[in-house]
Amino acid sequence: MHRSLTGAPAAAVHHGGDLRGAAQRFGIPRERWLDLSTGINPCPYPVTMPPPDVWQRLPDDDDGLAEIAARHFAAESALPLAGSQAAIRTLPFLLPPGRVAIADLTYGEYAPAFARAGHAVRRFHYRSAPLPPPDAAAPLPFPLDGEDPASLPPDIDYLVVVNPNNPTTHRIPVATLLHWRTALAARGGLLIVDEAFIDATPEASVASACGAPGLLVLRSIGKFFGLAGIRAGFALGPRALLEHLRLELGAWSVGGPARHAVRQALEDAAWHAATRARLSVDSRALRQQLARHGLAARVAPLFAWAPHPDAAGWHARLAGQGIWTRLFDAPATSAGGLPSLRFGLPADGAAAARLDAALRAAART
């Protein structure tokens, strides 16, 4: 087990949702903002209150939640987590030091977590046109610095893939991911697939292969279910690896009220089906709305991503009207060398109308 912690503390990674900072910066009271800066479902699962004793007793780690999750995700085994963030921060220290490939534009916690644990981080990029194509549902090729999509560089020990990628929405086919798992397992490596946004398209998941060596999948309850505040998620993978992670995280990693909420959410198949249908419609409507105002966007079921030369200007003009988006201001190869914006889904017709008016005004400026 690798446990080297050296150097100065790393800077905090920026995420969406910082409404307090937005309110201070733009002088608009917090309650007047429309927050579209995250990819969290704006219509969350309707959790009921837990029984009173859940608030008083310690969480029961053997309450069957792991088994419920394994069945729901079609995985061999599951480990409940205090959000997938717990695994992202801990896992790199459980792996022998090596070389890890991480996309140049993806969820920002992975690279610093692996670097802190002493791994060498290598960046790859998603091949994409400067302005995304209109058919945002189709997967695009995934080169590692130009290699064939089905191959891996021989010097890579670990590969992190967020699928679909946040924020670029790129998706990697199941067959390609399984090919990479086989190649990495043969060299004693690991493929880590973050499926935080996969729930709306479960057929694209590799969770069913998680019993095989060389594969770890992370799933979130915060995105599709809209329950980010309870901080719950799961690791899916070989039992031995999950046991190492469990021992490192310790007991009671997920609180009793959160376990109650997650059990309800995972077992409500009717809500899953209705939500998938709604998200498909809403995400396509958001893409069309952005296109009408000059922002070509790709969509995942929970957000839209728009590279644009003036992404920072759009971000500021919308913020001046109380619309908070997520700005990725560093040009990235995966974004065609451009900065970009991410838009979460409006919760209802009123929110969509407010966004439309703000986009119209921003386009005129």
Supply the number of structural domains. Answer: 2
Structural Rg:
20 Å
Strands in their spatial order, largest beta sheet: 2-8-7-6-5-3-4
Largest sheet at a glance? 7 strands, mixed
CATH architecture of the largest domain: 3-Layer(aba) Sandwich
Protein name: threonine-phosphate decarboxylase
Keywords: Cobalamin biosynthesis, Lyase, Pyridoxal phosphate
Pfam families: Aminotran_1_2 (PF00155)
Pathway: Cofactor biosynthesis; adenosylcobalamin biosynthesis
Structural notes for this entry:
The protein is an alpha/beta fold and 365 residues long. The chain folds into 2 domains: 122 residues, Aspartate Aminotransferase, domain 1, CATH 3.90.1150.10; 216 residues, 3-Layer(aba) Sandwich (Aspartate Aminotransferase, domain 2). 33% of the residues lie in helices and 16% in strands. The protein is built from 10 helices and 13 strands.
Summarize the structure.
By secondary structure, this protein is α/β, with parallel strands linked by helices. It contains 10 helices and 13 strands. Mean pLDDT is 90; it is low at 1-8 and 129-141.
Observed structural traits:
16% strand; four-stranded antiparallel β-sheet; Aspartate Aminotransferase, domain 1; Aspartate Aminotransferase, domain 2; 365 residues; alpha/beta; 13 strands; 10 helices; single chain
